[in-house]
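Example 3.
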Amino acid sequence: MTEVTLGADAWQGVDAAVEALVDKWLVNPGDTVQMGQPLANVVLVKSNQEIVAPTSGHITQILVPAGGTFARGKPIAVLQEAA
Amino acid sequence: MLGCSQRALREAAQRQLAGRCDVLVRESGGGAVLTGPWLVSASVVLPLGHPWLAGGLLESYRRLGQLHVTALQVCGIAAQALPPQELLHPPTAGTDASVDWACFGGLSPWEVVAAEGRKLVGLAQRRRQTGVLLVAGTLVGAVDWPLLCEAMGRAQDVAILRQATVSCADLMAPPLAPKRFAAVLAQGLERSLF
């Protein structure tokens, strides 16, 4: 299983207490995805960013729904890697 | 113009306005803003690898914010871009309240203030694998805050927005012509980006 997170680079310089918002999911649980495919749009400090699939596989669980917020390092979904 | 995460509010806002103006949703983050002759906006599209993007999203805001400060200075207006650490204790704007739904209702890193902490320039951005869009809006004239608040069903926030913001027209006489500021800003962008 692979956790889907907003990469550490995106949080560079951002205060530790600031959370990001999941704006929109582009996939659903069960969807097959390719590495690099956009999975969700999130907003951090007024910046709309994409989270892409770190590996190919399928989405098993969405942990943070659209409209929900998440802290640095927290996963927003779980992906089962392709065999 | 709503921020990307406000798209669910679009229909309600359109109904409230009853055809007086259009409601659009932009792709960048941030809150609602009323666009018109009172706002000089800048949209900067940068390829991945551009120097402005080297330090992360806050660094790109710093560059854009500081560029606006310089352009305002050229036009005779003193302003400052707020570093992140000053957001904890921002220069007083005469109110402790913030209006999170409005772009100009709160402060984010490197946005530009004048007149004791009142917001003058708002910033936002959109990052994709293909590049980054930086956007900025400068209040050059008086804003119809009642219209914006009415559209959002937040008439009670008019006074807060008036206290929390300032326009170039408030800061100098005769008022700064929007075209003059736009030209100065464009020159600054050309010098800084290339």
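Chain A touches chain B at residues 9-10, 12-15, 21, 23-24, 36, 38, 41, 43-50, 52, 67 (CB under 8 Å). The two ends of chain A are 11 Å apart (CA to CA).
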